[in-house]
Phenylacetic acid degradation protein (Sediminibacterium ginsengisoli), 201 residues
Amino acid sequence: MIYAFRNHIPVIDETAFIHPQAAVTGNVIIGKDVYVGPGAAIRGDWGRIIIEDGCNVQENCTIHMFPGVTVLLEAGAHIGHGAIIHGARIGRNCLVGMNSVIMDNVVLGEECIVGALSMVRAEVQFARRSLIVGNPAKMIREVSDEMIAWKTEGTKLYQQLPADMRAGWKTCEPLRSITDIRDVNEDDAQNYTTWNQSSGR
């Protein structure tokens, strides 16, 4: 659902995919090849939200701010399921883990990784390639070349997803019985591995 608020109508590039069960309101700018999942709320009523090219905002995320603030997701930012971004700036090619909370005036330098369930307090800034975890969240070390390569490959799947959704996604009636073997297709797996699998942990 796309909503105008006062004089502001969202600007969404035609290559982006916004799930119809997401809500995008007001002063919001969404760039190329952005994926926004169902249940996401991107609410530009009191300030502005800019989501640059190649970002993804996954299911049930919330992006909002205090009045007069601009929230910025720089190119390639990856916002995991259920995360909250409130009044923050997320640097280029960052990953915010599932169900994390990033509070007001936080600045993440480029290529930071925030672990799942982390709570990043207001006004905190992190340098480029910080690995950030905990509640309250702290930098525990620098993100390695290997880690950022893994992150970037994962984000590429989401950058392709808008086109895949337009090509192969539609409403349908469910089947009432199992009519075939429901294994994952090899094409769907795309040889992607989790961080633990890729690092041998």
Summary: The first helix runs from residue 145 to 168. The radius of gyration is 17 Å.
